[in-house]
Design a protein that fits this description.
This protein has helices at 3-12, 27-36, 79-91, 101-105, 122-128, 143-151, 183-191, 216-229, 258-305, and strands at 17-23, 46-54, 59-63, 95-98, 132-137, 140-141, 155-159, 171-174, 196-199, 233-236, 253-256. It has 306 residues and is of the alpha/beta class. The chain has a domain at 3-199: Metal-dependent hydrolases (TIM Barrel, Alpha-Beta Barrel), CATH 3.20.20.140. Strands 1, 2, 3, 4, 5, 6 and 7 form a 7-stranded mixed beta sheet that branches.
Length: 306
């Protein structure tokens, strides 16, 4: 989504402030802040710029900063890289929030490994200097992290993690700003651990469904054919690293489904036989009698002429 569409989505779903982050860059957050400060959106919503650090070990929001912090923008950052990232975030006046731990630790499909391999434990993250943990992400409420946050006096915060405009909103971080909805005051309230949250597993209704793009239909046939042909192989890659040129976080493999190709050829042959049988029936039942009657009428006309 564009920064403006993102803000429209949040306003429509009851938010009056939002942390906007993009993968490994602050640019998206700053762009959204610029839109929020325009005349059209002034007073409607406050944007706190952030960067979502994303790699093969951890996803972490660096909230309230104004530059891209690149110590850990690498496929496999060390613990020291993560510490430096958090320290620099604090130097810039921001806070470091660990994102969606349940999602990160879920087994990656096709592998007996989590999505984020070697993800630091909650205790390790506290030692590294994190300020809080995202206790709700989309439809998931992380009760284990909620208890941990409460026990360790960390910041309670939720995340929409919205990527498409036809998404529901499930959670809201609640702060008492006393009418002062500036980014600085919101950040100060978070640092003071004065946040709570609302979680609704049903989500907001109704949704906004974007119209179909008619230009899509111009390329749909070859595109769909290409998707169909993808059944003949498995491109096993695992979780994307979000690091340009670094590939994925899991071992990649390319498997050709020779048996499926064989069965496909068999069914093409069966289809050909069915077509030929149908053609013979059609010729025998329709075309043959038609030709015989045609010859009969022609012969009769010749006899009459004689």
């Amino acid at each position: 989504m564009s920064p403006e569409t993102l803000l429209k989505w949040h306003i429509a779903n009851g938010y009056n402030a939002v942390v906007v982050s993009d993968h490994n860059t602050i640019n998206g957050g700053l762009a959204a802040q610029e839109v929020a400060e325009s005349e059209e959106y002034a007073g409607k919503i406050t944007v706190i710029p952030a960067m979502e650090l994303t790699n093969c070990r951890v996803h972490m929001n660096l909230v309230g900063i104004n530059e891209t912090i690149d110590y850990a923008i690498k496929k496999w950052p060390t613990d020291d890289d993560i510490r430096k990232t958090i320290a620099r975030t604090h130097e810039l006046g921001g806070i470091a929030i660990i994102n969606h731990i349940p999602w990160s630790n879920t087994t990656e499909y096709g592998y007996e490994q989590p999505r984020m391999q070697n993800h630091p434990s909650r205790e390790m993250l506290v030692d590294m200097g994190i300020d809080g943990i995202e206790i709700a992400n989309g439809v998931t409420l992380d009760t284990i992290s909620l208890k941990f946050v409460q026990d360790h006096n960390l910041i309670v915060i939720t995340g929409a993690d919205v990527h498409y405009p036809d998404s529901n909103a499930f959670s809201w971080t609640i702060l008492n700003t006393n009418g002062n909805r500036t980014a600085d005051n919101i950040l100060a309230q978070l640092k003071a651990r004065r946040s709570s949250f609302l979680f609704d597993p049903t989500g907001t209704q109704p949704l906004a469904y974007p119209p179909e793009n008619p230009l899509y239909f111009r390329t749909a046939p070859p595109t769909l054919l290409g998707q169909y042909l993808q059944m003949f192989w498995i491109d096993k890659s695992g979780m994307y690293s979000f690091i340009p040129g670094a590939g994925t976080c899991h071992e990649e493999s390319f498997i050709i489904r020779w048996s499926l190709i064989g069965y496909f050829i068999l069914w093409v042959f069966i289809g050909f036989l069915i077509f030929e049988a149908a053609r013979l029936v059609l010729v025998g039942c329709c075309w043959g009698p038609y030709q015989r009657r045609k010859r009969y009428l022609k012969k009769k006309m010749l006899e009459e002429d004689v």
